Amino acid sequence: MIDVQNVVKAYDSVKAVDGISFQAKPGEIFGLIGPNGAGKSTTIRMIMNIMAPDSGSIRLDGKPLAEKDKARIGYLPEERGLYKKMKVGDMLAFLAEIKGADRQACAARADEWLRRFDLLEWKGRKIEELSKGMAQKVQFIGTIAHDPDVLLFDEPFSGLDPVSQDLLLESMLELKAAGKTVLFSTHIMDHAERICERILLINKGKAVASGALADLKRRFGADAARVEYDGDGAFIERLPYVKSCRSFPRWTEVELDGPDAADSLYRDLAGKLRVRRFELLEPSLHSIFVRLVGGESEEADRA
Amino acid sequence: MHKLIAVAKREFKAAAANKTFVVMTVLGPFLILAITVLPTLLNNDPKIASSGKPVAIYAEREDAGAFLASAFESQKIPSLRADDAARAKELVLSGEYAGLVEVPARWPDEEARYYSATGTDAALFGTSQGVLGALATELRVAEAGLSPEAAARLLSKPGFRVVKLGANMSEETKTDRDFMAVLFTALSFVMMIYMTVLLYGQMIGRSVVQEKTGKTVEVMLSSLSARDLMFGKILGLGLAGMLQYGVWMGMGVLMIKVVGPLFSLSLPAAVTVGNFGWLVFFFLLAFFLYAAGYAALGAAAEDEHHLGQLAWPLIIFLVLPMVMISTMIMNPQSPLVLGLSYFPMTAPIVMLVRILVSAPAWWEVAASVGAILLAILGVGFLGAKIFRVGILMTGKRPKIGEVLRWARLK
Questions:
Q1: Selected residues 35-94 of chain A with any CB under 8 Å from a CB in chain B
Q2: Ramachandran angles phi, psi of A38, nearest 5°
Q3: Residue B174, Cβ neighbours under 10 Å: how many?
Q4: Cβ pair B221:A98 closer than 8 A
Q5: Of A56, A233, A283, B400, which sits with the fewest C-beta atoms within 10 Å of its C-beta?
Q6: What pLDDT score was predicted for residue A108?
Q7: Minimal CA separation from A254 to chain B, in Å
Q8: DSSP per residue over B8-72, as a string?
Q9: Is the pTM of this model over 0.90?
Q10: DSSP symbol at B256
Q11: What's the CA gap between A199 and B313, in Å, rounded?
């Protein structure tokens, strides 16, 4: 279990991480979520003991991280890099070797992953011959081939095509099922929604919200509805509890001013139109995030 | 420790399975050949260096012409007599003749001349000058009416000998040729240390910078400590250097022990197996000292260009002994040379030259080696600290003050 308590790290006068606390447990995927520059990578680097926090504590299974613990951690840094002149197979063997892992078992696992990622025929080629996405996948394999208990993935999906992203999501779910502690960071909410049980939303170094994703969604309530109907729905927009209304060719999305308004909307629609479908929408992680940190983070998100 | 060795193995492969390395290793023996066999071959047989073209002799005095011809013949320099000076000059210019010696009728009161297309064929005009000089002396002695005995006595040089005192009062006669041989050997040894230390130092510096620019550093540090990474790199490249030196020394020893005796070549006196041993020894010391320095600079540098700028103080210390090489050989006991042989940055090269030239006492060598070892420890320690902090710094050039602050961090 990774236990981060009240960690602070400042660069010059800017606080990159300002009092962050969370726990990531075995058998779950924990998401560290926030826009670029929120302090996600700094937090992960501190967990990895690559840089020291100014204050606060970071513990792995109750103890501060020691040099020997590095063997049981797999770390995929945001700044990817492999030795360009090395062959894929040699590179993976080297990464396993500096983890002090069993060579043969690692090689077998690495081969299995190479096969899954369709890279087995590239094993004898040099890293510099690979495409950027291929090199990313090789690096992902290098992170997990020594079979670590704890996995830290910093923006693991960036630079991958959608098919590879799905493959990676699937792999992460497998790692979770195998009882590993998986911590990953992303600024793409959709990825977090698909695989995380619990998340920590951070912005400008500070925690904005945390907890189980399902709880968060419940807390922020279902305050939008998707309706399909026959008839003239122009009046919907003018209903007092409707904040906004967006029409799509097949349905209309209605944003309400609170979860209670859903009942009123259903009654009002049923009286005037032939409703074919009425569905309450859970707020997306994105909309929760936007509501919590406001427009400034949206700008950061686009940046 | 096995992580350090894994890094060392990788660095060794990266350095040794590389074109530059193979070329250097293959060319190295030719350098050894050049410093061992070539000079002796040239000394043994001047014909190797000559063009084989005849020297023309146009002498208006028959005695001078005959004397020159027989002198050339005894030195195996081809010569012929010319009847027409103007025609002979044309043939010199067109390359038929190596040169033309012209002796006028009123010689030796009038000057003799040597014509050549280059004016730099010192062996030929030197011989001509010497031969004519001896003849002129003989003629003038006869003119003065001296007896041959008196003339011989007048002309004989008093004896003079340069003796090198060895450790247990052993004596060894030295000549100008010996000075040149020592100079030549020392220069070659110093060049080899300079080139290899610079090459390997820069390789380490670059290898460290590339961890940063290639973004591999975080992955590395997630598996091992900065110290293991740095010393692994130094060890790996050090082994590559030793392999290279091993090949070269093998060739050198082969030259001394097998090729030399086989072709009965007299090798320069300073080219001995023992001196090769000192060369490897001081290479290793210089290598580890400069490697630690370059690793620290590599960690502090932003990119390879910046590393080049940071490295100039190291290069100055490497170049200094090279510039002073003839001073060191002529005055190995001067305070400056003595001082530099204990100053760690210059000591590996300067002490090596002192050992080649004079016989420093064992404690002098020990003191110098001790100073270098202490410096290696110091620079290694400091380097590891700068490395620890600097290796993660990217994107912004650290100032000197900042680098020194890193070194003080615990």
A1: 45, 48, 50-51, 67, 70-71, 73, 75, 77, 79-86, 94
A2: -80, -20
A3: 15
A4: no
A5: B400
A6: 93
A7: 47
A8: HHHHHHHHHSSHHHHHHHHHHHHHHHHHHHHHHHHHH-GGGGS--PPEEEEESSHHHHHHHHHHH
A9: no
A10: I
A11: 52
- State in Å, rounded, how far the first CA of chain A is from the last one: 33
- ipTM given for this complex: 0.78
Does A12 touch chain B if contact means CB atoms closer than 8 Å? no
pLDDT above 60: residue A296: no
Q: What is the DSSP letter of B156?
A: P
By percentage, how much of chain B surpasses pLDDT 90? 17
d(CA B10, nearest CA chain A) in Å: 8
What order of strands is seen across the sheet that includes strand A274-281?
A: A242-247, A252-256, A224-230, A274-281
B348, B286 Cβ separation under 8 angstroms: yes
Q: What is the pLDDT of residues B110-144, one digit of tens each?
A: 889 999 888 777 778 888 888 888 888 888 888 88
Instruction: Check residue B41 and give its pLDDT.
Output: 62
List of chain A residues whose C-beta atoms are within 8 Å of the C-beta of residue B6? 94, 97-98
How far B284 CA lies from chain A's nearest CA (Å)?
A: 26
Nearest by CB to residue A94, choosing from B10, B214, B222, is B10
CB A100 to CB B7 under 8 A? no
Are A251 and A227 contacting, i.e. CB atoms less than 8 angstroms apart? yes
Question: With contact defined as beta carbons under 8 Å apart, do B65 and B48 qualify?
Answer: no
Per the CB < 8 Å rule, is B218 touching A45? yes
Q: Is the predicted pLDDT of residue B44 greater than 60, yes or no?
A: no
What's the CA gap between A147 and B8, in Å, rounded? 24
CA within 13 Å, CB half, B266: 8
**Minimal Cβ distance to A98: which of B217, B218, B223:** B223
Distances (CA, A) of A10 to A209, A291, B393: 21, 27, 15
| Pairing status of strand A150-154 against strand A252-256 | unpaired
Q: Side-chain half-sphere of A184: how many Cα atoms within 13 Å?
A: 30
Fill in the amino acid letter for A12: D
Instruction: Provide the pLDDT confidence category of residue A22 given band limits of 50, 70 and 90.
Output: very high
Which of A80, A98, A185 best tests the B interface by mutation, with the highest count of B CBs <10 A? A98
Whether the link from the prior residue into B78 is cis, omega within 30° of 0, is: no
